């Protein structure tokens, strides 16, 4: 499945996690791979055109091949899911990385994605080139200050009472914590996303797991370049959590964003700071990345390109053969030739080849 906004295209795919849950993920952009664990409040198609997320997706797609996914139970991933444990969520991240054919990649964790990313980084130190932690934490929220615990309980009550209501009065409380400086359009976008991304029951089940999820013990084990970004007056995730991450990860650098917003908005001074810091942090990956996508794609024949474009639309080999009036065997041969030119092999070669094509588009 593909979607286009302006000149940008995202391809939506599905990875199968260890327990069989289907995890939806999207690929767009050009450059070294950057996998984003944006965590629970997401919907791949809705976010693609959201006034809250478009500046992130457009700008990050100019410096990296962006892979992002909907968590289990949320967005376009399987909804009827009972297991929201840390173990399951780490397996989901692993499944997406494998299905997308990523050998080594940078990982960006936002919000409640922090514990998952930290756990994954500790388990797979050779898989990541670098780690970005944005507006997030390691866990252990139950030792938070009393006012933080009171806020946690209040948000839980709001979810139970108002999450599924057609009007957004209850959801707006949560929205105001996320982007207190947001425009009405941006706030409506989060209001709508809450109800679209997840139902109230799933949201409560997931929260019950996350409040006891803690990867703090892993922080001292991380030995990779790490960038921590956090808004100074973040109301959803207190600034102290970002400071704690930077203090406990060897060599980590903390960048303070002068903002009240948990999600930095496109028109505030903190946004170019965020973008500059991330771009400069990822620069070594661009220098050491394999041959540029444009150069590699240029080696494909017109027929190989045509077949790959149809594969990017989600068509299988039988449908591609019918469209081009070829035999299935001929389609398979062209695909194998394309994989060889792109240096790909194995069960994830098709997904990786499509990602390379989309990055070139």
From TrEMBL:
Give the GO molecular function terms: catalytic activity; DNA binding
The lineage, from the top, is: Bacteria, Bacillati, Actinomycetota, Actinomycetes, Propionibacteriales
Task: Please give the SUPFAM superfamilies that the UniProt record associates with this protein.
Answer: alpha/beta-Hydrolases, C-terminal effector domain of the bipartite response regulators
- Which Pfam families does the UniProt record give? GerE (PF00196), Hydrolase_4 (PF12146)
Protein name as catalogued: Pimeloyl-ACP methyl ester carboxylesterase
Q: Please provide the Gene Ontology terms (biological process) for this protein.
A: regulation of DNA-templated transcription
Q: Where is the HTH luxR-type domain?
A: 293-358
Organism, as annotated? Friedmanniella luteola
């Amino acid at each position: 499945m593909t979607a286009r906004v302006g000149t940008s295209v995202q391809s939506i795919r599905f990875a199968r996690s260890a327990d069989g849950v289907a995890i939806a993920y999207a690929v767009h952009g050009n450059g070294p791979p950057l996998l984003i664990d944006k965590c629970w409040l997401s919907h791949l198609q809705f976010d693609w055109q959201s006034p809250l997320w478009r500046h992130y997706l457009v700008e990050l797609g100019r410096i990296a091949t962006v892979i992002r996914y909907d968590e289990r139970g949320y967005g376009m991933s399987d909804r009827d899911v009972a297991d929201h444990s840390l173990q399951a969520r780490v397996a989901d991240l692993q499944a997406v990385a494998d299905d997308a054919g990523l050998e080594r990649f940078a990982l960006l964790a936002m919000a409640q994605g922090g514990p998952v990313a930290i756990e994954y980084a500790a388990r797979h130190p050779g898989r990541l080139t670098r780690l970005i932690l944005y507006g997030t934490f390691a866990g252990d929220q139950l030792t938070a200050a009393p006012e933080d615990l009171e806020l946690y309980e209040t948000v839980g009550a709001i979810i139970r009472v108002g999450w599924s209501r057609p009007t957004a009065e209850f959801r707006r409380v949560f929205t105001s914590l996320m982007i207190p400086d947001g425009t009405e359009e941006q706030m409506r976008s989060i209001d709508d996303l809450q109800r679209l991304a997840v139902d109230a029951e799933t949201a409560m089940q997931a929260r019950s797991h996350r409040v006891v999820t803690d990867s703090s013990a892993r922080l001292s084990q991380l030995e990779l370049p790490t960038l921590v970004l956090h808004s100074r007056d973040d109301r959803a995730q207190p600034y102290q959590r970002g400071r704690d991450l930077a203090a406990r990860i060897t060599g980590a650098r903390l960048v303070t964003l002068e903002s009240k917003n948990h999600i930095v908005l496109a028109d505030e001074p903190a946004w170019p700071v965020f973008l500059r810091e991330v771009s400069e942090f990822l620069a070594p990956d661009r220098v050491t990345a394999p041959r540029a996508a444009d150069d590699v794609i240029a080696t494909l024949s017109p027929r190989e390109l045509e077949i790959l474009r149809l594969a990017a639309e989600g068509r299988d080999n039988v449908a591609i053969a019918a469209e081009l009036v070829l035999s299935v065997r001929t389609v398979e041969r062209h695909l194998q030739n394309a994989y060889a030119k792109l240096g790909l092999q194995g069960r994830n070669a098709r997904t990786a080849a499509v990602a390379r094509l989309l990055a070139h588009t």
